[in-house]
TrEMBL record:
Lineage of source species: Bacteria, Bacillati, Actinomycetota, Actinomycetes, Propionibacteriales
Protein name: Hemerythrin domain-containing protein
Gene3D superfamilies: nmb1532 protein domain like
One Pfam family recorded for the sequence: Hemerythrin
Residues of the Hemerythrin-like domain: 9-133
Top-level taxonomic group: Bacteria
Organism of derivation: Kribbella pittospori
C-alpha cells in the first residue's frame, strides 16, 4: 500500500466531494426543495472544511514547512492559489444559497457552473501543492517541526474533530484511511469519530446515498 500524507488524504476528500456536488447538481430536478436542502447541508460542511484547511495551511503549515526548507516563493504561490479558490468558493456559496431558497432549474444551473469552476481551480491547486510539498511531508514526517505542526492542527473541539474524521473517512480508499487515522491513537479515534462524528453521519453522509 502506497504511503501518503494526511494532507494528501484530506485533498482526496475535497476532490471526492467536489465531484459529488457536480454529479448531484447535474442531476438536480427542478422544484425538488428537499434535495436542495440536502445539498445545502452537505455544502455547509464542505465549505467549513475547505476554509479551515486552507486557513490552517497559511497559519500553521506554511511556517513549519518554511522552517524545514520549503521556499517562501513556493508558499507565496500557494497563498495566491488559495485567494483564487476563495473567490470561487464565495460565488459557489451564494449560488448554493440561492438554490436552497428556490430549487429552480435556473439556480441549479448557476450552482453547477459555479461548482465546476470551484472544482477546476481547487484541483489545480491541490495538484500543484502535492507536486511541490507531498514529498516534503513524507520525508520530514518524523521531525520536531512536523510533529509540532500536527499538534497545532489537532487543537480543535471534539465536535470539530469528530466531524472532520467522519467526513474525511466517508468513502476514503485504504491509503487515505491509513493516512488519516495513522497518527491518532485508536481508542481516541473511536471515541471522537464514534460520538462526535454522529452528526455528520446523520445529516451529511445520507445526502450522497440518494
Amino acid at each position: 500500500m502506497a504511503e501518503m500524507s494526511m494532507n494528501k488524504a484530506i485533498h482526496a476528500a475535497f476532490r471526492r466531494d467536489l465531484q459529488r456536488f457536480v454529479d448531484a447538481l447535474g442531476a438536480f430536478s427542478a422544484g425538488d426543495q428537499v434535495r436542495a436542502e440536502q445539498l445545502a447541508t452537505a455544502w455547509a460542511n464542505f465549505d467549513e472544511q475547505l476554509v479551515r484547511h486552507h486557513e490552517g495551511e497559511h497559519d500553521i503549515a506554511w511556517p513549519a514547512l518554511e522552517s524545514i526548507g520549503v521556499s517562501r516563493d513556493v508558499l507565496t504561490q500557494m497563498d495566491a492559489e488559495h485567494d483564487t479558490m476563495a473567490a470561487a468558493l464565495a460565488k459557489t456559496r451564494d449560488a448554493i444559497a440561492s438554490l436552497r431558497r428556490t430549487a429552480s432549474a435556473e439556480d441549479a444551473a448557476t450552482a453547477l457552473a459555479a461548482m465546476q469552476e470551484l472544482q477546476r481551480v481547487t484541483v489545480l491547486h491541490l495538484d500543484h501543492e502535492e507536486t511541490e510539498i507531498e514529498g516534503v511531508y513524507l520525508a520530514k514526517k518524523d521531525t520536531a517541526e512536523m510533529k509540532a505542526m500536527g499538534r497545532q492542527f489537532s487543537k480543535v473541539s471534539p465536535a470539530q474533530g469528530g466531524t472532520f474524521f467522519a467526513w474525511a473517512l466517508d468513502g476514503a480508499d485504504p491509503e487515505a484511511s491509513a493516512a488519516i487515522t495513522g497518527t491518532v491513537p485508536k481508542p481516541v479515534l473511536t471515541i471522537i469519530n464514534g460520538i462526535f462524528g454522529r452528526n455528520y453521519r446523520k445529516s451529511v453522509a445520507p445526502v450522497w446515498r440518494n
